[in-house]
Description:
The protein has helices spanning 43-47, 54-92, 138-142, 159-166; strands at residues 2-5, 12-14, 103-110, 116-123, 170-172, 175-180, 183-189, 199-203, 208-213, 218-223, 229-235, 239-245. It has 248 residues and is of the alpha+beta class. Residues 35-48, 93-99 and 130-146 have low confidence and may be disordered.
Amino acid sequence: MFGKKCMRCGEKTSKESNFCQNCGLDLSRNYNPRDYGMLGKDDFGSLKQFPPGFGSLLGNISNEIMKNMNSIMREANNGNSKRIKSADNIKKEPAFQNIKQSGISISITASSNGEPRINVRRFGDAARGGFEGDGRNVIEEIGEIEEIKEVIPNNRISAEKARKFSKLPREEAKSSVRRLGEKIIYEIEVPGVKSLGDVVINRLENGIEIKAFTDGKSYFKNLPFNYPITNYRLVRGGKLVLELIEAD
């Protein structure tokens, strides 16, 4: 039954067959066994010897393969383009881009004459006169700014009193301190002092010096801070009361 052997693949086939049933080689032609391409010695010529429709079948298969490859390449390119665009958006669109910053900063400093000076600086939407949404002015939003009004205590006495008080014995006054809200209340015991005209308060570099005089004695007290004095008074019982505001 099998009287032929394919010179290409070695598969046996019947004598009546003109083509190898395994690889499709044209068995009716004489081939040089030393050199074969995919379809024989003459690749293109051998296509004419294939059974009817065989070349068309190969062409259809090739076309389908190319269509699939083109489709795969287009999808890959589209995917890469989307990823690149997404990456560009991440770079171009900063985080929190929809958050608008605005507000004010307040600083309190001492002027050349010793009086407090308040500086209000606005930024963002506040710099244009108000916050977005309600349109109210910044000052209306935060309320009125309460200035620290520092009083300037008496720090001078007449030359006659200075000579008189310099001869009196000196004594450090007793004191107590307490906090009332934002205020610091300092109470200094000065029994016998009749008026604030006999009290001298001097500001030092790192503190406050207090002197008070009676007819027979002088009192002194040094406070270890230099906070602004908002009020001071002499009360019954011989106490000098100072109200101060703690400041940085």
